[in-house]
Amino acid sequence: KGVYDLVNKKGYLFKGKSGVNVEEIPSDQDVLNIDPSFPINLVELLRHRIFEKLADADDEFAEIYLNNDVNDIKIDDIHKTIRKCTILNKIAPICLGSAKSNVGVQLLLDNVCNFLPSPREVKNYGYVYDGQNIADTDIVNNNMDADVENRETNDNCVQSNKNKREVQLLCDHSAPMVGFLFKIQEDSMHGQMSYFRIYQGKIRKKDMITNMITHKKEVVKKIMKMHSNMAQEINEAHAGDIIAINGITGSTGTTYTNGITTNLHLLNIYVPKPVISVAVEILKKGDMTKLTKALNKFTKEDPTFYVKTDEQTKETIFEGIGELQLEIYKERLKREFNINVNLKNPKINFKETITKPYECSYTYKKQKGGAGLYAHVHAIFETVSDNYNDTPHCQFVNEVIGNDLPKNFIQSIEKAFKEQIEKGYLNQSEIINMKMRLISGKIHEVDS
After folding, report:
1. CA atoms within a 13 Å half-sphere pointing along the CA-CB vector of 386
2. Helices of type H across 283-374
3. How many domains does the chain divide into?
4. In terms of DSSP H, where are the helices of 41-74?
5. Residue 127: inside a domain
6. Does residue 448 belong to any structural domain of this protein?
7. What are phi and psi of 209, to 5 degrees?
8. CDD domains per the record (predicted)?
């Protein structure tokens, strides 16, 4: 229903359709009247912890914190310190809410405006790789060595490379254009919309810009300023703007320039590995072709969304970074493509193996008038490796000495061993990490 702001000591309720109406709850007593279970006794403790972290990060605020009662510290001083430390990458403010229920979204956007830097307040860098040719030397940071020492932690993740030169990008519309494509979205009206951040220079409608991956020139057909799901077409955008472009074909993480600068790349987007997977059940068999088309669109738009087919169960598997993300794609399949699916837990591909060595000697003997059936095998079964994950395969080793077993019999034993590995023993699951050492055997001249 709502959130509590520890800094401002206020509660907020989100009412109306999709939580669009925000109601401020000014006092702690009013909060308790609405929700008697709210742990109001923890508020002061948590506020103290916030102020202690701010004092550790900023000496000026530390003096204010030590010389004043917590309740006497001005909200403006708190906001000023949070903004200062956030820009310096010393802290990261956390806002709670629910995107699905639209709870806390308005406060999050307010905090983006209050605490995050404008494009002119931070330094951004690109990297020119070997063979670089920068025509406009004004964009090169001549004091690069001195400036690197003062770089904030987000730039320290760049891997060292002797053939890589660092370039400071200026938030200046008169400098050569450098931009970054960070999101792709298919739109029924505009086609592929490429969300684009301009770090330097400007872009005009019908400009030719160069894809730094393919080194091909592409035409900017439309420039749109986005307001939620509404697009306002404009003719020009400048450094610091975030826009949507129609006409370019780059993938997520592509750097674009105006062609003057070559081999310039910005740091790519970090894509986390999936942490959750679900199996997809199609309710209508004829929707498989439409589903393939829809999933191609989704995976192109979102690099954190993965689709695969389980080789053993033949199930279609969705993988992502959260349960809500996968539920949203389920709803989009229904809304945009009229495809109904169920999401369920994927089948678990159990594996079987042995836990300790086992030596056996087995004789098969059967007589039914005339020629019978006879075979004797002596073998040892053991693990291939102590690490099951590193050694999923099984091995067959022939250690028979002499000519007790003909070659064709040994081949038959190996074939039967491999067939049984696939079938399993306990619950028809594949057997892994097991070695069969064939020690000896016997045959009968007539019955084998």
Report:
1. 0
2. 288-301, 323-337
3. 4
4. 43-57, 59-67
5. no
6. no
7. -120, 155
8. EFG_III (cd16262)
